[in-house]
From TrEMBL:
Superkingdom assignment: Bacteria
Database matches in NCBIfam families: TRAP_TAXI
Keyword check for Transmembrane helix: yes
Coiled coil: none
Protein name listed in UniProt: TAXI family TRAP transporter solute-binding subunit
Organism of derivation: Almyronema epifaneia S1
Keyword Membrane appears in the UniProt entry: yes
Pfam families cross-referenced by the UniProt entry: NMT1_3
Keywords: Membrane, Transmembrane, Transmembrane helix
TM region(s), chain numbering: 320-341
SUPFAM superfamilies assigned to the protein according to its UniProt record, in alphabetical order: Periplasmic binding protein-like II (SSF53850)
Length: 437
């Protein structure tokens, strides 16, 4: 490389190194601000969101999660699609919108059907003519009640349904302003436990899960174990057959992949710490393979779940080995061709050099200017041929450089010989050689 190019190249390299270092430093100092849509402030989602945000802050200080109270899953999904939030908690029955990507399955949420003891209600089918307290419109509980009641042959005109906040719904049931209450929530919720302490209400089972799955394919059969809400009485008195949906953590597709990978890692690898902050997290099951969440996985979550899968190099060892072998074979062929080409170029340059040496010998034996002119013409013809060969890569630039030295020696030898011949032919004969002088 010539000196005039060296300084610019060094300068560009230094600028690139500085830019790379600056970008690396900036990335290390970056703080990610995320908003997590949960649910009502007295609900499971909000409590989980606060615990999860605290845990993430402890292990990843560069990820700050703001917990946002909402009306529930449908609103959360809408806000995620609109990028008003970057993370959301939703029930798995919530219709997924295009921007939503799955991160993790959290805990099951049981259908809680609580009725007044004096209301004469033994199942959902007995709600005809009754007053039903529902969760806020827009919540997952509210949305699930209608297909559930339809399965039992009821229409909205068969009963009186009214939406309340969770606290107000519990109070309405206790005060006799409602005959039944329907709520979907994780097991062990404190407000539900307080409600069930009253001797005015009781918790009823919800069965027919296989039939329900015909219209609600996302529900699962589960149990509320005996004594879940009070081990002394106990409440419930026996294992209670109910159905459930799963709570999911979802993220917008645009959230940084590494951030989502670390969120997923925190959720699973620091689960014991999360349980201390939020006991219901004990129901988050360990994941041994890529989970099926009913919507596409986020790339970051997939990177975490797939880390125990065979490495790419191991899984594709045979085709990679074949590719490497073929590449080496091609590279070897290209190298051999290059060596052959370099040798061929050198041989051609050597041929020209030998021709020039032969011309130099002829110059020294030449005694007429006419013969020197012929040799000069041959020398320039060789130069012309060499330049053409250089242009079409029949000789290399290095060979051309080695050619120029003997060529210059030859042209200087011709000039010198011309001078000598010209002087000898222009000098007059001496008097000693002229007998008539």
């Amino acid at each position: 490389m010539t000196s005039r190019w060296l300084l610019p190249v060094v300068a560009i390299g230094a600028m690139g190194a500085i830019a790379f270092a600056a970008l690396t430093w900036r990335e290390q100092q970056r703080v990610y601000h995320l908003v997590l849509a949960t649910g009502g402030e007295g609900g499971q989602y909000f409590a989980f969101g606060q615990a999860f945000a605290q845990l993430v802050a402890q292990h990843h200080p560069d990820i700050q999660i703001e917990v946002q109270a909402t009306q529930g899953s449908p609103q959360n999904m809408d806000w995620l699609q609109a990028e008003r939030v970057q993370l959301a908690l939703v029930q798995n029955d919530t219709p997924a919108l295009p921007a939503a990507r799955g991160v993790a399955k959290l805990f099951p949420e049981m259908f809680h059907f609580v009725v007044a003891k004096n209301a004469g209600i033994e199942s959902i089918a007995d709600l005809r003519g009754k007053r039903v307290a529902l969760m806020p419109e827009g919540s997952g509980s509210y949305a699930l009640f209608w297909p559930l009641s339809q399965h039992y042959g009821l229409t909205p005109n068969d009963f009186q349904a009214k939406s309340y906040s969770p606290t107000a719904a519990h109070e309405a049931l206790l005060q006799g302003e409602a005959d039944a209450l329907f709520r979907v929530i994780g097991l062990g919720n404190g407000t539900v436990a307080a409600l069930l302490q009253s001797d005015r209400v009781r918790l009823l089972p919800i069965d027919q899960v296989e039939a329900l799955r015909l219209s609600l394919p996302y529900v699962e059969a589960t149990q509320i174990p005996k004594g879940s809400y009070d081990g002394g009485l106990p409440i419930p008195a026996t294992d209670l057959e109910v159905v459930a949906v799963n709570a999911l953590l979802v993220a917008h597709a645009n959230v940084d992949d590494d951030v989502v990978r670390r969120l997923t890692q925190t959720l699973h690898e620091f689960r014991n710490e999360l349980i201390q902050l939020y006991p219901a997290a004990v129901m988050i099951e360990p994941v041994e393979e890529l989970p099926n969440l009913g919507l596409p996985l986020h790339n970051g979550a997939q990177a975490y779940y797939g880390q125990d899968q065979p490495y790419f190099l191991v899984e594709y060892a045979e085709p990679i080995g074949l590719l490497i072998s073929v590449s080496l074979l091609i590279a070897s062929g290209v190298w051999q061709f290059r060596l052959w080409l370099i040798g061929r170029q050198k041989n051609r340059a050597d041929m020209y050099n030998l021709e020039i040496l032969d011309l130099i010998n002829r110059v020294q034996e030449t005694h007429t200017l006419a013969d020197l002119k012929v040799i000069r013409q041959q020398l320039f013809k060789i130069l012309q041929e060499v330049v053409v060969d250089l242009d079409i890569d029949r000789i290399s630039p290095e060979s051309f450089q080695s050619f120029t030295f003997p060529w210059e020696v030859a042209i200087n030898t011709i000039r010198h010989q011309e001078v000598l011949l010209s002087q000898s032919q222009s000098c007059p004969p001496s008097t000693e050689d002229n007998p008539d002088a």
